[in-house]
User: What shape does this take?
Amino acid sequence: MTKNGKYIVILDLDKTLLGVNSGKILTLESYRSGLLSTINLTKAIILSTIYKLRLKNPVRITELMVKWLKGVPESSVKELTKQLVKQMLIPAIRPSIIKEIELHKKQGAHIVLLSAALQYVCKPIANYLKIDAIICSSMEIVNGVFTGKPQGQICMEKEKAIQIRKYCFNNSYNLKEAYCYADSFSDRFVMEISGNPICVAPDKKLRKLSEINSWRVIED
Assistant: This one.
């Protein structure tokens, strides 16, 4: 591949580009539509609490959370996410980040969406905003049905940094010139290797890190 932008802009999705968490919305709407059982919803709530309290490895918790997809047809998830993106996620895009994207596009930047979310959510949002590329998580599918196992590594924490390093190397982008927008302390691995980290409505730990490093903060 060859470089097709002056520099690269890296965007996190949940609570950064969006003002909401798409995973939480997908889980609740999957329950309402009958794709997710009451037992699996309860498990998801428990695991979410464990995740927030950082009681176990976040990547392992996420792997457990997506197991509810086992046995669900890919077509059902595609149809559900198509509706969710249009009705709930696109309206939740932060106006402040739209302005940032427009500014970078005018300056000839290459925009990449980097997220732990699945492509069924990331791709239509990227298309809507005319984002150049997506790097996200994938689930294993056999005969059109999810197995409940990730395909490769979940794109979060250190894996995000690994994936964006690889992408920049393959496309001749310099991370020291990169802009990285994120909201969570878990995104610090990507932010620390980017030349221009920008915190968007950051959580407490990321806000503290931003103060230590004098990183720019966008509040809404």
